[in-house]
């Protein structure tokens, strides 16, 4: 087994987001991914995927030698089935999701019922559903849902940075989820004082320059042994204008790729 380094729509967030003067297309993101020598791309929280010609997206990815993964939010059976169908059309073997949607966050019991209903279709299709750790749902709750369903096709998308906002220590998040991790979102982060020294800002930073203990995460999860892919994301703070922010985003991508490649 191997752990492949990939990029995500979150590595191009300020370039495809509506705040961009000329938002780039998914095809452009795929082309730029290939230009970095990267062979894995996660289409994550990208609503336009529901409107695109999926056969054309897959053809572009195939031409560029890129394997696709998929990401969405929500646990309704209808929604998870919809994204399983999209994953099938894209040839994606991983779908990342989260407990919540904009309007609803299920309880543990409700999440367990929904996942128990949805997961047999994922098992039949050979697709893994990975639930992300994030601040709105305690990590033990996400782990409890995975354990209650008990399927090898249901696990965790580990992102230690998210849960910091819920006062969960990143090392604790890593250690609680390690046996169930199916996908990793890799980004570094740090706290800085706000102007006037009143409060803090939690924001992204280049890998190796913040509070993520990357070596501990890798030693604990052992992604290379388990075939768990590492997907680069960014929390790039707004730099005052789109062009400057997008340029910083690209510099972080290059830095983070070099950082991860140096540790393989």
Automatic annotation (TrEMBL):
Taxonomy, superkingdom: Bacteria
Keyword line: Isomerase
Domain Xylose isomerase-like TIM barrel: 5-243
InterPro entries in the record: IolE/XylAMocC-like (IPR050312), Xyl_isomerase-like_sf (IPR036237), Xyl_isomerase-like_TIM-brl (IPR013022)
An annotated Gene Ontology molecular function: isomerase activity
PANTHER family tied to this protein: HYDROXYPYRUVATE ISOMERASE, XYLOSE ISOMERASE
Name of this chain's protein: Sugar phosphate isomerase
Species name: Actinoplanes couchii
């Amino acid at each position: 087994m191997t752990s492949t380094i990939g990029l995500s729509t979150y590595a191009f967030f300020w370039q495809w987001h509506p705040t961009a003067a000329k938002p780039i297309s998914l095809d452009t993101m795929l082309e730029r991914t290939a230009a970095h020598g990267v062979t894995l791309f996660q289409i994550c929280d990208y609503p336009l995927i529901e409107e695109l010609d999926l056969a054309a997206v897959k053809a572009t990815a195939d031409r560029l030698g890129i394997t696709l993964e998929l990401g969405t939010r929500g646990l309704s059976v209808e929604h998870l089935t919809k994204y399983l169908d999209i994953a099938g059309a894209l040839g994606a073997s991983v779908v990342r999701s989260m407990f919540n949607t904009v309007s609803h966050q299920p309880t543990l019991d409700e999440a367990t019922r929904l996942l128990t209903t949805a997961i047999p279709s994922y098992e039949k299709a050979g697709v893994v559903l990975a639930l992300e750790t994030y601040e709105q749902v305690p990590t033990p709750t996400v782990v409890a849902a995975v354990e209650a369903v008990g399927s090898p096709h249901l696990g965790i998308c580990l992102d230690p940075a998210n849960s910091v906002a819920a006062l969960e220590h990143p090392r604790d998040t890593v250690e609680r989820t390690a046996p169930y991790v199916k996908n990793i979102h890799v980004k570094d982060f740090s706290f800085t004082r706000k102007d006037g020294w009143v409060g803090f800002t939690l924001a992204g930073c280049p890998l190796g320059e913040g509070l993520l203990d990357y070596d501990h995460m890798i030693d604990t999860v052992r992604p290379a042994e388990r075939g768990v892919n590492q997907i680069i994301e960014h929390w790039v703070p707004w730099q005052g204008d789109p062009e400057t922010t997008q340029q910083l985003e690209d510099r972080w991508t290059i830095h983070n790729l070099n950082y991860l490649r140096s540790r393989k």
